[in-house]
Design goal:
heterodimer, A: seven-stranded mixed sheet, seven-stranded mixed sheet, 6 helices, B: 304 residues, alpha+beta, five-stranded mixed barrel, three-stranded antiparallel sheet, 9 helices
Amino acid sequence: VRLRDLRPADGPVEFVARVVTCERREITRKSDGSRRPLVSGLLSDGTGTVRFTWWDPPREGVERGLVIRVVGPEVSEYRSRTEVSFTWRTRVGPASVAELPAVDPADVPEKVVRDLHLPDEGFRVSVRVVRIVERAVSVGEERRVVYDGLVADGTGSIALSAWTDFGLRAGETVEIVGGYLRAFRGITQLVLDERATVRRIQRPDLPDVAAVLSAPPLSMARVEEAGGGAAVSVEGLVVGLLPPSGLVYRCPQCRRGVQGGTCRVHGRVEGVADLRARIVLDDGTGAVTVNAGRVETERLWGVTLDAVRARLRASPDPSVLEGELLDALLGRRLRVRGPASMDDFGVTIQPDSVESVDVDLDATAERLAARLGGGRA
Amino acid sequence: VSFREPAWRVVTRELESSLEEEKGPGERAASHVLSPFGSRMNRVLLAGILSPAESIGRDESQPFWRARLADPTGAVAVTAGTYQPRAMAQLRSSDASRSALVVGRVHLYRGRDRVSYLSVRAESLRSLGEGEERAALADAVRHTLDRLDLIARLEGDPGISDEALVSEGIPRGWVSAARESIRRYPEADRAQFRHELRAAVRRVSGIALPEEAPELPATVRRRRDAPLPVRPPPSAAERAEESLLLEFLDQVAESSLDAYADRRELLARVGSRGLGSDRAEEVLSRLEEEGVVDEPIVGKLRRA
């Protein structure tokens, strides 16, 4: 069967799919304390993706990209998503790419960006490439290049992560078939692997790059409702700072915060001074945390890292500095753009840009007066 | 999941009209003040003219300061104590009236005379330029109009679904607050309030000078409108529960070192006499509301 047709309790099934992501773990049995290895991850066949759990996997390991034929898996449903697990009853063997089901673009439904929600898959979208950057990552031992970016249509934008070079360039319009969605650091991403296809199309009606990047701000309530987004724009007043803000020390190797001269990963290190501000921005409908880095913090504060360090030598009380930073920021009206992720504490934005906003008071007063005059008052 | 409480943009007149409180379940839940005009506020952001602060602390080791923030629609008391050191320093920092921005928590205190006193405990406070003050006031008026429009819509079409409104971009919290405002303040005069916003818009356009607002003493004033909901007089059974609870409160308080009755112990004792803890909590909150009992420290009760 094709993965998009896979349902629990269908009786014995067989499918061919590719391992998209995988992770090896060991589970300790409660009964006798013995350890049992498993590999879990994501499978895709171009028509859909499912999470899999492979009990007692082959000793030589399971690698990303491996194409497998699976006969007789256990098919279940978790949070209305289909999952499979391979037990001693399941036969799993290697298969060739040619055996993967053919994906006919006309066969998958067309979707708009706003309607892409986890765990959607097996869809086709027509989008403008807003930006695309090459990034080197290491997956286990392996060095790979991914192409990270942002794509958009008239209904919204979504982060893109391509594991194959499709030669994407900012500004062009493309039709993407066979991508799938995953959550990465709290942000939904459209992922393209070898199975995905990209076709250049002529769609001048799609919003251009500038229009996407200068979209008017959304209310924070709306951003919370949407669970964040890849390219969010909000505007509000600074109502506070969260620790750590001001002067911080970072590990020279991984840039994590250093506490008590110790990095969580690299142990005792000589911390490198840096400036940051974790700004609480509020628009009356909600609040977001904006993680401003050194450049934005220096610009908003009007004080450079060097000046801060010089001042600290003169009066060594970092809390005074944090107070000054708060005084400089409190009540400032800022417009912030960037990817927004959501967790249990709310929405956090890693800003691509932070700008001060001036309000046209005369125009605003006129609009308000018109609303009052035209109302029931 | 509970996110940070947004700072509602309101004019002071809306705060003056707010008499209803909602306490969430559990000990640490946020409490909210519900206004007749569609706000369910825990935190607010206000802009206006802040008067010099006066000390109202009775204990020198626990300083407590109060000032009055006025905008063209009214005024509200702004306080800060030792737990808000930065806000307190800012509150005390000027001997003259000035434009200021206040972010803080709304407190509604209902005295024994059944008069409500609303104040804002400042979390952060800053002097503002006139332009910034007018811009913040403009936000408050815009949001207030949006909420009044929402209430009008809900009154006209009570059956409209929350989802339909949320999909238009209206904050979900606004929809439920508006419905609750309509329910709890059936008598509210929203047209009059809407009319009073005109003064605020004049200030936004720079016409009305802040000095024109009459100076009032830096104390909170009596609420003017929206009478308290009339509660039916307690039944004989409820009276009996109240007196049982008060009897044990006195007993527990007497035997404790600090002269307060521990809430948990009290509930356990009355529980052994057949008053279940849910019921007892209900009776307690009624007694607190009537000003018979108060809880100056969380978990510690005494006769008011």
